Amino acid sequence: MKADYVAGTICFLGFLCVVFASSMTGCASSWFGPNCKYKCRCEDNNCDKDGMCTEKFTCVRGWFGPSCQYDDIAYQFGDVVELTDGNDKTCVPASVEKSTTLNLNVSFIFTWMRVVVSKPKFRSQIKAKFTSNSNATECRNRTYTTVDSITMDIHCEIADPIDEIVLSGDGVRYLCSVYVSGGRNLALKAKTEQSSTYSEQSPSTFQLNISFTSSKAVDGKTNQRLYDGFSCAMTQESPTRRQYWELTFSSPRSVHKYLIYGRTDSKDPEFRLSNISLESVDEAGNVVYDYSYTPTDSFQEVLTLIHSPQTVSRVNIHSNIFPRQLALCEVEIFGESICEAGKYGLDCENTCNCEDNTSCIISTGICPFASVIVSPTINKTCAPGTFGDDCSFKCSEFCTKNSVGVHSCKDPTGDCDEGCLNGYTESTCTERCPIGTYGKDCTQVCGPKCLEAKEPNTSSCHHASGVCLLGCQDEAFGPLCNSKVENSVRQSAGGNDTSYLNLIIGLFVGVLVLLPVLYCLRKKKPTRSHAEERNRRKP
């Protein structure tokens, strides 16, 4: 299929360029959508009017999702390069079995991710665990959605930044790609204003007037040299007031990250990114996030700010000192639309099509598992104890049995219906309790008197029962080496031992006293017997 526009660029004198496009879309070749406000992220700008990549083209590396609008922060990170190279044709090597880690080397707010596998059967057999500084982080309202036969999205609400994702399950060995959403750039072509606008005549014979307007900070160009493309916004210098730049969304957005690009073509601190503040406010005018930046050693060329998702209507960036100009070469604000129930899309322009009027995923419009109207498996019901696209997987043997004695779980994810048996965790109950814990939901801690294992990654107690595996420390004893309880038992047992000893000693002394008496009695008795015998023999 060919793109339904004709576009191009004509330049004069090496710097004055005119971009043209056909009337079919009214957009330049690198833009699409209403008011041409979305940037084409397909290879060689090969997008159709909806931003979809045409013919054999795919998303530019580092972008993915609907119309390639979502920043892939996993790109070229992680232990297995084949998973994060942006190429669905390259898959994990044979050495990877049931677990792999994406260490992203930066903290970020997780919203959703996409996994692509080589075999459809294993699409849903992948679980994700999220960590921050090696500590597991709670994932609330986890949702799985099917994109196609080999692609699945995982959505999750995590309040704090994470830096690592651990993927596990039978599907890991069939993984081909992992994409992690950093959100989409909501600032592009948004409404902006600034306190004043700097302008000057261009160094050409045409003597054109060049204005560094506020809109140039949201034009999608990240060139940080003021006169190389003239794509920065810059205010005038004012001796009496701080200069500002402000963006207003057409409707509230969920925001979690900002990238602020300053100038790099001047060493003068006055023109660099420094001594500025950012404030984000909601629809009622309440400040939901603020940050002040004052460099101490060196200037950051790109300032990155992240926070938990907040509803934002307006963003203000202003200089903290005056007289001074404010120069911003690009401002990117990442997040997602906030749509009313039943709507989705870049501008919430589409209506969900899920059963029972269930809301769909805002980014894709896909219905969560078990609520899709149009699905090849909607009428499929797996037998109790099985799950998966073709019901070929068995629920974990560590799922708690239901009322009829079956290890039951949800289809198609394998999440246990009634929790895990003692000693197991995760939604599918396939992982043992973390080292040092045991019992139901792994809420118990191994006894403090259990002998510690010398081998690394080895627990001192049994993951289900808590029994100390290597014995007890000091005077503690018993299955759990519970020193407080067992010592009292030992003291009681010790008192009984003393009583027994005293009894034995008493008996021994008694025997020693009785022996001479018995001996004497025995010696006297034969004498009488002989006398009586003699008397009986007399005539």
UniProtKB/TrEMBL annotation:
Keywords: EGF-like domain, Membrane, Signal, Transmembrane, Transmembrane helix. Residues 1-21 form the signal peptide. GO terms for molecular function: scavenger receptor activity. The keyword Translocase does not apply. SUPFAM superfamilies: Galactose-binding domain-like. InterPro entries: Galactose-bd-like_sf (IPR008979), MEGF10/SREC1/2-like (IPR042635). The chain crosses the membrane at residues 500-521. The keyword Transmembrane applies. PROSITE patterns: PROKAR_LIPOPROTEIN. PANTHER family: EGF-LIKE DOMAIN-CONTAINING PROTEIN (PTHR24043:SF8), SCAVENGER RECEPTOR CLASS F (PTHR24043). This is Uncharacterized protein. It comes from Candidula unifasciata.
